[in-house]
Specification:
Layout (H helix, E strand, L loop, with lengths): L1 H10 L14 H14 L3 H15 L4 H15 L3 H15 L4 H15 L5 H20 L3 H19 L2 H17 L3 H18 L3 H17 L3 H15 L7 H15 L3 H18 L2 H17 L3 H11 L3 H4 L2 H17 L3 H54 L4 H95 L4 H28 L2 H6 L1 H12 L5 E7 L7 H21 L4 E9 L2 E8 L6 H6 L3 H12 L3 E6 L5 E8 L2
Parallel strand pairs: 1-2
Antiparallel strand pairs: 2-3, 3-5, 4-5
């Protein structure tokens, strides 16, 4: 359980929404555009071709990108639409090197394109807002990105009738929800994106990205089995293009899938393929993103030495450490890694750095909000100054209206101040509520971590108990059992050589006691680790258990339905121990004479229902007692991610319903 929660914590910050992506066959795209430039005589077509080449080379060669951008501007001439597009493509060239300037250029492109009521203009405006929000996301402002997508990009794309852009925006919203841990909403938007791309016959690379995103979402939301079909669908589209950059996302998603499946060797092999491809293409951040996934695989494989080496390497990379979210997860991951290596001093230091960075992130957000209020206040003050200057000018020319104008200005100033004051009070109270909510969320997160740690401790105890039971059962049966059997054989041989009738009778009595001892020893060994469970499976073992506990005073009616033989041995042992404890409690404590036990399985859900006519008990009082019987049952149910319901009252019998996840 610790492994999964740790992985989810780390992965949620790794997915970004990129800008306008190239197709799978990038060479075919550039060749096609070069052919257009050679054959056409139209300046407008040349301008568009150079703009498209500029957008493509922006991610590969900044010099070629800038050269094509300027050529596109030259061929645009006096065409106002192409001149507006210049700022859109200029913003694309600046996304990595100057993100703030890039955002300004996207806004200018939107302003200029808003003069044209055409589908193409709406489409470019939608893409401009999309890229504007994507830059905000890279600054860790996910809220701004979601707001831009829902209120700007998607409405403009729908107005343009460009379903491919609509699907891309849906997918981006899904990624935002995925990163926020709202996996149900993320799944909804990812499925809408996939359906939109298919219906619109969109470029293949858009569908590939959607499959990778929903595969990661399934893995993160504990639905790892659903991730495999999505990965397979993506691979069918990617297989013909072994050099495509989209393979990097595929290897990342595949590595996550194998890590959650516990197939760490396959996960590391897949991630290594992606790292080699990223190095070949000179994509530093993508290489480090895959190395981050390798860190998760090493950690979850309990190879903490390699995990520490990988985390140390990543913390030396500027590309990774630029992002606060990356620093947060590396500090936290290093703390847990050092803890598992028994290096408690470094573990404490890293956890402290993580806590300080997390607190500073919250303070930085508060500072940004205060700064925004300050800007609004300054704007209001500047407006008042402008009004005052206007008033002075009017006063010089229109003395007769002086008094009335001054009164109006004073009234307006008071209203503005009151509005600003009320707004400030509203914002202050909102911040207080937000701070309280964050504190509650933080405490809840700590409580969940404590519960996970307790569950892991209980799991380790249960596994240790089962191992010790197996060892003791083997030692009793093979060691002490053999010795007693040998003693009986030797004693029987001595009886034959004894002439005294009294001695013979006494020795036969001892032999009978040895028989009883061997039988009792075998019964104890069987209870500690039933051989039938290991040899014949859970159904036979449960049936034998019920028969062994029945006698003249106690009747057990065992009913089974759909119990599969493919359950893992560990799961079968836990179910057997739960039933063993339930029957033992009913017979020993409840003194039941009639017990009905039902065990059934429906796909990956296993149900246990037990009813008895015993003396019952107070369930609330039982929950406060320190007995280990019911506690062991609850621990095993928790280990199998199940739930238990107990209905009982004094002198009215007991009904217990248990539901277990056995996938």
């Amino acid at each position: 359980m610790r492994r999964l929660s740790f992985l989810i914590f780390l992965v949620t910050a790794t997915s970004w929404c990129s800008g306008q992506a190239p197709p799978l066959n990038e060479k075919a795209l550039t060749d096609s555009l070069e052919n257009v430039l050679q054959r056409t005589t139209s300046d407008s077509i040349r301008a568009r071709a150079h703009y498209s080449l500029s957008e493509y080379w922006a991610a590969h060669d900044s010099l070629k990108s800038s050269q094509n951008l300027e050529k596109g501007k030259q061929y645009s001439g006096k065409n106002s639409f192409l001149q507006a597009l210049y700022y859109y493509y200029e913003a694309n060239t600046l996304k990595k090197s100057a993100p703030d300037r890039s955002q300004s250029a996207f806004l200018k492109a939107d302003t200029l394109l808003s003069r044209f009521n055409t589908s193409e203009a709406y489409s470019f405006r939608s893409k401009a807002w999309y890229d504007y929000g994507a830059i905000a996301q890279r600054k860790d402002d996910y809220k701004a990105f979601a707001d831009v997508l829902l209120n700007k990009a998607i409405p403009l794309a729908q107005q343009a009738g460009d379903q491919t852009v609509v699907g891309k925006d849906y997918l981006a919203v899904g990624i935002v929800f995925k990163n926020a841990g709202q996996f149900d909403k993320a799944e909804t938007y990812c499925l809408k994106a996939i359906e939109t791309f298919k219906n619109a016959h969109s470029p293949t690379h858009e569908l590939v990205t959607a499959y990778h995103t929903i595969a990661e979402n399934y893995s993160l939301s504990a639905q790892n089995a659903k991730a495999k079909p999505a990965l397979d669908s993506a691979w069918k589209l990617l297989a013909p293009f072994p050099e495509s950059e989209y393979l990097l996302d595929h290897y990342a998603a595949e590595g996550m899938y194998y890590t959650l499946e516990g197939k760490f060797k396959e996960a590391l092999a897949s991630l290594d393929k992606g790292i080699q491809l990223a190095r070949k293409k000179g994509l530093r951040y993508e290489e480090q993103r895959l190395q981050m996934q390798q860190f998760y695989a090493y950690f979850n494989d309990n190879n903490f030495v390699k995990a520490k080496e990988m985390a140390t390497l990543l913390m030396q990379q500027n590309e990774t450490m630029k992002l606060v979210t990356n620093r947060l997860q590396l500090f936290y991951g290093m703390a847990l890694t050092c803890e598992n290596l028994r290096q408690m001093a470094p573990a404490y230091t890293w956890m402290k750095r993580y806590s300080e960075l997390s607190d500073s992130l919250t303070k930085a957000q508060l500072t940004n909000d205060v700064h925004a209020l300050e800007i609004k206040f300054r704007n209001a003050e500047k407006q008042k100054e402008i009004d005052a200057l206007k008033a002075k000018s009017i006063q010089d020319t229109l003395h007769t209206k002086n008094a009335r104008l001054v009164n109006s200005l004073l009234g307006a100033a008071i209203v503005i101040l009151l509005v600003v004051l009320l707004f400030a009070v509203f914002v202050y109270r909102s911040k207080q509520k937000l701070a309280v909510q964050k504190e509650l969320s933080y405490r809840q997160h700590l409580h969940e971590i404590e519960q996970q740690q307790q569950l892991q401790f209980s799991q380790a105890v249960l596994q240790g108990e089962e191992q010790e039971r197996r060892r003791l059962a083997r030692d009793l049966h093979d060691g002490l059992g053999g010795m007693l059997a040998g003693a009986k054989i030797n004693l029987s041989a001595q009886i034959e050589d004894t002439y005294s009738q009294d001695q013979r009778a006494e020795l036969e009595k001892i032999t009978l006691q040895l028989d009883h001892s061997v039988t009792e020893l075998r019964r104890i060994a069987h209870n500690m680790m039933p051989v039938n469970l290991l040899k014949f499976g859970l159904k036979t073992a449960l049936k034998d258990l019920c028969e062994s506990l029945m006698n003249d005073a106690t009747r057990i009616d065992f009913q089974d339905l759909g119990i599969e033989d493919t359950l893992r041995e560990e799961v079968q042992i836990h179910i057997y121990r739960i039933v063993q404890e339930l029957l033992s409690n009913a017979i020993r404590h409840a003194q039941a004479t009639n017990i009905i036990l039902q065990c059934s399985q429906n796909d990956h859900i296993f149900f246990i229902t037990q009813e008895d006519n015993g003396k019952g008990f107070d369930t609330q009082a039982a929950g406060k007692e320190k007995g280990i019987g019911l506690s062991n049952i609850r621990n095993r149910v928790g280990f199998l991610k199940g739930k238990i319901d107990i209905d009982s009252a004094a002198n009215e019998g007991t009904t217990i319903n248990i539901e277990l996840h056995v996938d």
